[in-house]
């Protein structure tokens, strides 16, 4: 492992390559870790790998998980997590400023590959993204069960009282009794074609404007939890779903795009370091919505540091060990 001063200098130099790069860690990551009994048998000793992520909790946690696993395999890891904006992190990967980051199939398909029609089947969506991005010199490794897509959520007592478990049932309730259809939505979701207008069209219901309450990012959860609305727009992996004991409503017509997460690297980088896939496979196998909800809740609800959350999870899973 490189020393603290060397590591920070490398991080700072790497950050200069990115426009608007944002790093939030207040200290160097404690990457002096060993491979655990459940780690892949791989040796990346002496390989310098720059790990990036976007700038929200889930991405930062996954970025740190990746760093610990690569470090345990012997890699000289440089932390470039917390890059501001999806386009900036994508460009960093394409240009070679970072070597690996985790991306979402739906984001790549719609935002980067400019496709207008998402594919409802998550496996087919992944294969389509993987094939298309090969032309951009990028390799998608295997995808995880974690699917950070949109959904509606309700307070558990409301869902039980109304007997609602699917979005089709929400539509039937709203058509039967419009006064029940009070929705808390984020600003952008209100007008996006893959947001509320599209949901209403796909499920065949209409909500009067007065029944829509608009909030900034994240405030929907608190509003839903305190009963300000019956239904709220949420992200399926958010830790506040657990903390507030909310019930996710099934998108039974699969209107929302699939957002499965997968590690992405450049083709030339993977050709030189094929063992990176082996190292990350144990994490791909473990990441699902429940796991991420629990990890995110530790950060967003309990106030834990994402570095420590990532390290402790991998120790518990036997993927890394502390010296």
From TrEMBL:
Name assigned to this protein: Glycine/betaine ABC transporter substrate-binding protein
Domain ABC-type glycine betaine transport system substrate-binding: 48-314
Pfam families in alphabetical order: OpuAC (PF04069)
GO MF annotation, one: transmembrane transporter activity
A GO cellular component entry from the record: ATP-binding cassette (ABC) transporter complex
Endpoints of the signal sequence: 1-28
Domain of life: Bacteria
UniProt lineage: Bacteria, Bacillati, Actinomycetota, Actinomycetes, Pseudonocardiales
UniProt keyword annotations, A-Z: Signal
Keyword DNA-binding set for record: no
